[in-house]
Amino acid sequence: FPSHDTRITISSTPKSNNDQASVIPKEQFYVDPVLLREEITKFYETNECTTTLGNFLNKIAEGLSHSPSFHNYTYRDEMIGDALVKMYSALKFKKYNLESDTNPFSYFTTIAFHAFINRIKKEKKHHEAIEEYRAECYEKLLTAGEIHDETYNIYTRPCDGEEEYYASLIVTGK
Q1: Is 40:91 a contact under the CB 8 Å cutoff?
Q2: Can you say whether the dihedral through the CA atoms of 157, 162, 166, 167 is positive or negative?
Q3: Which of 22, 33, 44, 106 is surrounded by the most beta carbons within 10 Å?
Q4: Within 13 Å of residue 159, how many CA atoms lie on the same side as its CB?
């Protein structure tokens, strides 16, 4: 047996240029917690939102929207807008405690996260209402017989018990 290590190591293949282009640089959305805390302190003293503070909040919301949990939603802009409103509201009412040791970045990211989840819930309710209305209209159209084409059969929704009756006919072969 050889005395040296005989294990084979497999190196990962380098990323192609296309893969590297899709990666978002960390600096684009990075917010330094120390600078954020300083800006919040200034805001609490003057009640004026500086451009820097606004950019920090925007970076938090925009960066969170690029996370795998949220990047495929078509209403990402609405999610970002809701998050900005909620984060500014928390600033306005001085919800963040400067005396605490909590990271301001994590505090405002949590606010943005919950705003995103609430927007998803609202959009889901809206989508379900539209789908319910479509199904209702489609059923009315079919049961009213307003389609005057020989290729269409008129749809009638089964009454209670009819489904079991027809299923029993199929099983028994009658």
Answers
A1: yes
A2: positive
A3: 33
A4: 0
